[in-house]
Amino acid sequence: MAACSGGSKPAQTTAAPDQTTAAPDQAESQAEDSQEAEGEASAPSGDMGEELHFKLAENQPDGNPITEGMYMFAELAKKYTDGTVNIDVYPNAALCDEASSIDQVMAGTLDFSRVNTNSMAPVVDLFGAFGMPYLFSDTESKYKALDGQAGVYAFSELENYNMVGLDFYEAGSRNFYTTEKPITSVADLKGMKIRVQQTEVAISMVQALGAEATPMDYGEVFQGLQTGIVDGAENDFVSYYTSGHYEVAKNFTLDGHMAPPALVICSKKAWDQMSDAQKEGVSRASKEAAQWQRQAMQDYQEESRKECEASGCTVIDVDVKEFQDAVSSVYDKYPQYKELVDLVRAAQ
Question: Distance between alpha carbon 23 and the CA centroid of its chain, in Å?
Fold first, then answer.
């Protein structure tokens, strides 16, 4: 297992000031108003226990709402545990890449990580279900499922891997973008080399569309696009913008083929170090941070789109049904996901 190494700059537990960070203060203020109304019942009970220090790995850079959500989680965890749980956030893969962070959390050598369900799938196969093409009909029903039975079912599986799942966070809807030839229909994908995450579902989906799926570490994608190793990639608008991919891949196709959520995982080793009151405070912090981050991500999707279009990117609308029909056979390849898929669809 690849070890996580320290970053070159001090980790932050508070977000750098920018357009996405004023909202956490507002959200925290609103949360405080709500908590005062609820009374003492909302506060963690019991002795907090000893002071603890943890590290959290995040692969996105500062400015991305998902990274800002991690800063907010750390701030609230400290607040709701009376300063006894201190979580240092390391953005931009300063500790290690996403795949390595999962290995390390599972082994207990890293305390927390924020990962995508697609990245979790090679380790915990069940999470591949969240990356099935066109699984979620809309954002509201998506979180009705994830905060309900579908989420409970998925998180229970993590226990078999020495991990604890806290909450699901928004990672946007994934779309294709290319450097040269724009994608206006399924036919345009034929023969293209498209960077995908290292998951069987993502590979199967791109192959079903007639393209060549090319797994590649996220940090290598910019150079891969720039040098022509791949013709395109796929991600949400925020990542497309904050990663700088829009600078080298100007054609963005709004097909919305998948919307796998992110989640925060905690090692069982770190979790077991916490008192019950600390666990309650950390869980509460994650839930509130997730609620803020989901909305912030949706807001920033629109801001990112405007910035990309202003820089000369072309946003292409397509017949989504054509894409849905082309990938429908992918569901037949993964019968092991049926129970979780059914739980998601029952909430929609």
Answer: 19
